[in-house]
């Protein structure tokens, strides 16, 4: 495969790009960042450009046999619509065999007023309509939330020093936590497995865990007692805004505000392994992921 990866400079797209490159598949991506500010991704070729300009997107897709798309943290419907239209048009023009779309999040069955859900639903609709009868296969993966988000400046110090796992989800919310690496494996499978064109997969981890169960798994991985502390989504949003800016933070936090109000409480739960079986995936248990993280990074930081 020669894969056009949209979002390779981010955490989710970056994990996908690294996995593809590790397995010998050339990767090409697009970035607005100056060359000096781009991450080091061996095996990935960068082109300058913007998803808002069709000519840039067309150039990204030139020579690509496959595409993996993770939309940036943009939640303005008009802008997202333009991005999605450009991507669908470029995929058709390039004759891409299969496009895999990572929605960033699960998507509720019913429409909501949450931009984090509805802009991703909009993108999927554009892809399904824009790629229909084009010869470009579409596969959609819908992840829950990421363990990697818990290895962060607002989680690490409290875990290391106090054994507190703070998360902006109600304690009873069942979640099939996955890592960015698990996501990359799911995208890779979606790119390569036969007979799944047109399907959507609610990917997830090996187990569905409530907050206290997640804390127990962290405790086993860290070898210490850990308790779960539900974090008010507004507090999470303000903390995230310091790193990503207010608009992306509001978009990301919309998912947590929604879950805090009990909308579709099972939205982030697992599917009893159905997607993992179809994609031949074996997500790592939470304990294993915890044991692999360099928690000593936060030893000198105070919560």
Automatic annotation (TrEMBL):
Region entry Disordered, spans: 26-45
UniProt KW keywords: NADP
UniProt keyword NADP, yes or no: yes
Annotated NmrA-like domain residues: 2-240
Domain of life: Bacteria
Keyword Protein biosynthesis: no
Matching SUPFAM superfamilies: NAD(P)-binding Rossmann-fold domains
Secretion signal span: none
Stated family: Belongs to the NmrA-type oxidoreductase family.
Name of this protein: NAD-dependent epimerase/dehydratase family protein
């Amino acid at each position: 495969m020669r894969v056009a990866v949209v979002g390779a400079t981010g955490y989710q797209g970056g994990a996908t790009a690294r996995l593809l490159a590790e397995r010998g598949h050339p990767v090409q991506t697009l970035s607005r960042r100056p060359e000096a500010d781009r991450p080091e991704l061996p095996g990935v070729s960068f082109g300058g450009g913007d998803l808002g300009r069709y000519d840039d997107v067309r150039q990204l897709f030139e020579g690509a046999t496959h595409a993996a798309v993770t939309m940036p943290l943009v939640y303005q419907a008009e802008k997202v619509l333009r991005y999605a239209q450009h991507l669908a048009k470029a995929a058709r023009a390039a004759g891409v065999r299969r496009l895999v779309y990572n929605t960033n999040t699960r998507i509720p069955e019913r429409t909501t007023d949450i931009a984090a859900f509805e802009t991703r639903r909009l993108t999927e609709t554009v892809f399904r309509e824009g790629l229909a009868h084009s010869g470009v296969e579409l596969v959609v993966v819908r992840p829950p939330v990421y363990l990697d988000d818990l290895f962060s400046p607002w989680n690490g110090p409290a875990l290391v020093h106090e054994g507190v796992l703070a998360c902006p989800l109600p304690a009873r919310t069942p979640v099939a936590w996955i890592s960015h690496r698990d996501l990359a494996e799911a995208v890779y499978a979606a790119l390569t497995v036969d007979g799944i064109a047109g399907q959507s997969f609610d990917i997830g981890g090996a187990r569905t865990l409530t907050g206290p169960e997640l804390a127990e798994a962290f405790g086993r991985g860290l070898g210490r007692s850990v308790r779960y502390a539900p974090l008010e989504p507004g507090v999470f949003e303000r903390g995230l805004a310091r790193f990503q800016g207010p608009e992306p933070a509001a978009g990301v936090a919309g998912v947590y505000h929604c879950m805090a109000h009990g909308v579709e409480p099972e939205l982030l739960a697992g599917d009893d392994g159905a997607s993992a079986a179809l994609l031949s995936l074996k997500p790592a248990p939470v304990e294993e992921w915890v044991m692999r993280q360099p928690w000593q990074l936060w030893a000198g930081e105070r919560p």
